[in-house]
Amino acid sequence: MTSAHTEPAAAHRPGVSGWSSRAIVTVIVAVLVLFFAIPMIWLLFATTKSARRLIVSNPFAPGSAGDLSTNWSQLFDFQDGAVTTWMANSALYAIGALAITLLASIPAGYALALTEFPFRRLLLVLTLVVMLIPNTALVLPIFLELNVVGLIGSPLSVILPMSFFPFGVYLTYIYFSTSIPRDLLAAARIDGCREFQVFTKVALPLAAPIVALVAFFSFVQNWNNFFLPFVMLPSSDGYPVQVGLTSLLASTPAFNPSSAGAQSVQLPTLALATVVSVLPVLIVFLVSQRFLVAGMTAGGTKD
């Protein structure tokens, strides 16, 4: 009887292997966090230092507000305010492509999920196939196509290719397939609504979380796009900020010794430019966080 009572109790005790596995997982997670956090912390502190203090002081010691102000002035005085132009260009390209993406991908996902038309399944398969093709592989044919119609160098040469977002179509398709009751749409049709009215007055209001998710992914992809604008835009005046960073990098003596001169950029200023370039994405994420969480969990269950 004694052994019968002691064996179950022993079975509930955490063994050495259980504690060791937890310790290993904890160590791995801590190492990964440090691996990604340390460069970010260094980058933030670097923006508050002078070029000399960046080298001789503690890498993780904060600098001063005066050095931060100097770096800020140097950054936005570079090439007579080129950074401000680059940021405005990035906003134009990202928001312009985002508007076209939403106008195209949301109705396309709805049509693929909830309507019947010829070649519907073929279009869905093509959407999945295009998602697997790297964006850089499409730059050359897109360049040749836009060159034929004379759009190279114009904002449309960046906005139109960026607005092609098959991942947004697929996300919308998954949401409408799993989260919108078909009986609700059928009731709207019985009440006399046409298909466009069913979409705009019934389905679209219920799809706010997935619209926010597609908008966020599209904006981030457009804002961070480098290769497409680099190929399509020959002039610095049309650069987005991600491409403009290459001009700052080329003007930094630490990376390009031949650039030492009146327009040279120091490492703290380059670090500040990197932080400024990602601030819009961070702000958009913080503002839309609630909608993003709702969009990511949408479609996980089906009523």
List the helices and strands and how they pair.
Layout: H1 2-11, H2 16-46, H3 51-56, H4 65-77, H5 82-114, H6 120-132, H7 139-148, H8 156-162, H9 166-179, H10 182-190, H11 195-206, H12 208-224, H13 227-232, H14 241-250, H15 267-287, H16 289-297
Helix pairs in contact: 4-15, 5-8, 5-9, 5-12, 5-14, 6-9, 9-12, 10-11, 12-15, 12-16, 14-15
Can you put this structure into words, describing what you see?
With 303 residues, the protein is mainly alpha-helical. The chain folds into 2 domains: 53 residues, no CATH class; 220 residues, Orthogonal Bundle (MetI-like fold).
What is the average of the pLDDT values?
86
Helix/strand order: HHHHHHHHHHHHHHHH
Q: Could you tell me the radius of gyration in angstroms?
A: 26 Å
CATH topology of the largest domain: MetI-like fold
Shape label: globular
CATH superfamily of the largest domain: MetI-like
- Please report the first level of CATH classification, the CATH class of the largest domain: Mainly Alpha
Helix percent band:
over 70%
Q: Which regions have little confidence, pLDDT < 50, spanning 5+ residues?
A: none
Our estimate of the beta-strand percent is under 5%
How far is it from the N-terminal to the C-terminal residue, by CA?
Answer: 50 Å
